Amino acid sequence: MTVVRNFAFIFILMFVISGCSDRRNSDGKLSILPVISFEIEGAGSSPIVHASKDYIFISDMLDGIVNVYNYEGNKIKTFGSKGKGPGEFLSVSMLCRLEPLDELVIYDVYQKRLSFFNKEFELSNTVNIQEYLLSIQPLQNNLLYVTRKPAENGMMSGFNDLVTMKNISSDEKIITKKFLPASDDVLTYVDKGLLIDTNSENLFVLNRGDDFVIEQYVNGTNKKIWKLNKEKINIEFTKLNSIHCGSNFIILNLVKADNSMNYAFFDFDEQFLGELNMNTENEYIIDVHKNKLIKLVTDENGDYICSIMEVKF
Q1: How far apart are the first and last CA of the chain?
Q2: What pLDDT sits at residue 66?
Q3: Between residues 116 and 150, which one has the greater pLDDT?
Q4: pLDDT cut 70: percent of the chain above it
Q5: What is the DSSP string of the chain?
Q6: Could you tell me the pTM of the whole model?
């Protein structure tokens, strides 16, 4: 695929990024630099995106097809199809890549099935699971996932969100859990609960609640409780939408009252680095790998432009 270098888009992007300068540290050390922008195919209305060391995987949740791009913006592979058979999907609900094993894991929520693909993107294994998964993330040779189960004393009392780590060749163990009390408000179960993200060594668990908590694990152990709170963030927001983990920083996706997105950057010492404002609902950061941000922008025709940006501080 021919890479589209949209210079007008890059100029607008640089203008938007420049708006974060008033929120940098006093030394102004955070920089977010555009690298490349390109049009993508096959994202549909509900794009699923995962960035790994070599590739960016992009799929429409409902068409069962996965498109593989490199970091130069070239589409190098398409695989998968709609269906219930091996290597087919009713929904590409989530995906992640286990880097040390060169395996891509795809979760199909409708079939409650994990499919594993080798480095040639050929199906190598499938695993049927009992629970519905809320999230999957890679950590070394481990697959981390979040499940939501009725509490031990019955569904009417609420639910438990569980973060479980499963090594491909060994048993699984529960890392942490959060209790969600029963509520008539369905948003209690949508806007609360646990979110996770990882890099090569660290697992971050965001416990979304009125007093949110961030837990950091190194290789699944050595828990550290971050001391971030709304006062330290000092940005007005109505809910926490996601957490992203880079090589040595995290990003909190904060949704403001007008539904605009704000991305607050912190280093691993919990120091605020700066923020990136998204002024429309048509652009958002969808994934992070090491120091690269993957951003999607919807143009006036409803097509997607993928923008890769580099974080430096």
Answers
A1: 33
A2: 95
A3: 116
A4: 85
A5: ------HHHHHHHHHHHHTTGGGS-TT---EEEEEEEEEESS--SSEEEEE-SSEEEEEETTT--EEEEETTS-EEEEE-EESSSTTEES---EEEEEGGGTEEEEEETTTTEEEEE-TTS-EEEEEE-SSPEEEEEEETTEEEEEEEEE-TT-GGGEEEEEEEEEETTS-EEEEEEEEEE--S-THHHHHSEEEEEE-SSEEEEEEESTT-EEEEEETTEEEEE----HHHH----SEEEEEEE-SSEEEEEEE-TTS-EEEEEEETT--EEEEEEE-STTEEEEEEETTEEEEEEE-TTS-EEEEEEEEE-
A6: 0.85
Average pLDDT over residues 171-183: 78
Candidate ranges 174-188, 206-220, 263-277; pick with highest mean pLDDT: 263-277
pLDDT digits (tens, 9 = 90+) for 43-62: 777 789 999 999 999 998 88
Burial (CB count within 10 angstroms: exposed 0-12, middle 13-18, buried 19+), residue 230: middle
State the virtual CA torsion across 33, 37, 41, 43 in degrees, nearest 10: 30
Bridge partners of 139, per DSSP, are 142
Would the pLDDT of 143 be above 60?
yes
pLDDT at 171 over 60: yes
Ramachandran sector of residue 83 (left: φ over 0; alpha: ψ -120 to 50; beta: rest): left
Instruction: Return d(Cα 241, Cα 259) in angstroms, integer.
Output: 11
